[in-house]
Design goal:
heterodimer, A: mainly alpha, globular, B: alpha+beta, Sulfite Oxidase, Chain A, domain 2, 5-stranded mixed β-sheet, 11 helices
């Protein structure tokens, strides 16, 4: 079923739904008493949720024996970048009023913003090279190596969230656990594969 | 025949609006002497409000805004939660505020007694949250100093410690693991700060008694300090000899100091305090004023103090 074309359309619409909801609320003038806070939290929440989904694809393919899940990974990655960019632009526009020097000062001075910027910047080359053409141009191996930057994004995003909350850390811990499981699975799978491969042939340089 | 019971039906669901609006009008016209004899419910008209020269003439926020955007962690950590989870908060006629410690006449005040202690003034204050947003609210109450003078602080009294109501049956979200802070919520002021006429013992807003999510039935409003100093739903006021512990300072001393005076020059470690958002504007473009604009009145309290160190 996952191989059918329409499934992609459905997943695309599901990922787009939060943005549509936000646009609807903006149109209706229903962005709560504090629109800056509302839009910032809304886009940040969806960015980290879809980021978790992106990272979960690889383990879930293996664990659920559903290799076709791979069809959604790029879309999830790009939607993560989309919501993270909206999150960043909201801050830059409403909070920093496009004052770039103030923005850079904050990035340098405030660790949680440094972490958030790291998460976003690490995604940028991945979004750019997400097309089939770039995979071909770079070659599968190199492309894959570059796209491991998403691990950095995942960790930085969780740290960003953890450092910014005032007191209730339950949600950052939940996302942290999801990212840790998703990355831990890869690490474990890699170690197992290496242990098994040593007698047969030299493992390819990768981790 | 099966008759379904209508659960959660409120009087407001079955009473036509014109009738209960009339009731409010009627209550407003009743002389204060009669009214003072009975317990006021949340959101009921306060009679005979006196205008105050301490009020600002800036544009006020709406009642809807002030009552649906609250930091009140006893009722949830999200801003929209207190309006929902405090809806059935019972403050009751047995609500008492105990004033104790280094005072000549320690005593417990009922709300009825508090409402009669002094004429209720309308004080329109700027309210600045440490999170860099601000609102303008017409509070109702009288200077905290009136209450303190009624009990007579002794010479040993140097600070005032405040404590909020805490009851898990009424506030199931008020646990450290859910809210990330300790309960009961406690705050404190230096005695001279507490005696300053701007420090308000607040019993209402918008001409009515306080709604639960804004700190019913009685709270503090200290307009030159960040909002979290203005403790809600007060049950205890204790005059003490040394600086009392305060909730946010215990939670994170690096970010929330004892003084917490509004100060554009001292950043919160995670964000600048130079500008604020005057809600409901989405833009953080309103310059923060020293002492939230009350410097003329309160700056002398801090003469010679390093406000960067005593943040």
């Amino acid at each position: 079923m996952l191989r059918q074309k329409w499934t992609k359309v459905v997943v695309f619409l599901i990922c787009l739904a939060p943005a549509a909801w936000l646009a609807r609320n903006a149109w209706m003038g229903d962005l709560t008493v504090n629109p800056l806070e509302y839009i910032t939290h809304f886009t940040g929440d969806w960015a980290i949720r879809i980021l978790c989904a992106t990272l979960a694809i690889t383990p879930l393919r293996k664990l659920l024996r559903q290799p076709d899940l791979i069809r959604f990974r790029r879309m999830f990655g790009l939607f993560t970048f989309f919501y993270a960019s909206m999150h960043f632009l909201t801050w830059l526009w409403l909070d920093k009023l496009f004052d770039l020097s103030e923005m850079l000062k904050d990035v340098a001075k405030r660790p949680f913003i440094t972490a958030g910027m790291t998460a976003l910047l690490a995604m940028l080359p991945l979004a750019i090279t997400s097309t089939k053409g770039w995979i071909r141009r770079m070659g599968g191996k190199r492309w894959q190596r570059l796209h491991r930057l998403v691990y950095l994004s995942g960790i930085a995003a969780v740290v960003h969230y953890y450092w910014l909350v005032k007191s209730d850390i339950r949600l950052p811990l939940l996302y942290g656990a999801i990212v840790a499981l998703a990355l831990g699975y890869r690490l474990a799978a890699n170690l197992v594969a290496r242990a098994g491969m040593i007698p047969a042939k030299k493992p390819a340089a990768s981790f | 025949m099966l008759i379904k019971k209508a659960e959660g039906l409120r009087y407001s669901d079955i009473t036509p609006k014109s009738v209960y609006l009339n009731r409010r009008k009627f209550l407003a016209s009743v002389p204060a002497a009669f009214l003072a004899g009975r317990q006021l419910l949340a959101g009921e008209k306060l009679p005979n409000l006196v205008k105050s020269p301490l009020s600002t003439d800036e544009k006020q926020n709406t009642y809807e805004q002030v009552s649906h955007y609250n930091n009140f962690y006893e009722f949830g950590t999200r801003k929209d939660q207190p309006a929902e989870y405090a809806k059935n908060f019972k403050t009751g006629p047995e609500w008492m505020v105990s004033v104790e410690g280094y005072v000549d006449k320690p005593r417990k005040f009922s709300m009825e007694q508090l409402l009669k202690l002094a004429p209720i003034e309308e004080r329109i204050y700027r309210h600045r949250c440490v999170e860099a947003w601000s609102i303008v609210v017409p509070w109702a109450g009288y200077s905290l100093s009136t209450l303190l003078k009624a009990v007579g602080p002794t010479s040993k009294a140097k600070f005032v410690a405040f404590e909020s109501y805490w009851d898990l049956r009424q506030m199931p979200l008020a646990t450290p693991d859910r809210a990330g802070i300790q309960f009961p919520y406690v705050e404190g002021l230096r005695l001279d700060e507490a005696m300053h006429p701007l420090a308000l013992l607040c019993v209402g807003m918008y001409g009515e008694t306080l709604p639960p999510q804004d700190g019913a039935p009685v709270r503090l409003v200290v307009p030159w300090k960040y909002g979290f100093k203005s403790i809600k739903s007060l049950v205890k006021i204790k005059l003490v000899g040394s600086e009392p512990p305060t909730t946010w300072n215990m939670s994170n001393a690096h970010e929330y100091g004892f003084y917490s005076n509004v100060n554009p020059n001292v950043d919160h470690p995670r964000w600048s305090q130079a500008k604020e958002q005057r809600l409901p504007s989405p833009f953080k473009n309103h310059p923060t004023q020293m002492f939230n604009g009350y410097g003329d009145q309160v700056a002398s309290l801090y003469a010679g103090m390093d406000l960067k160190k005593n943040y």
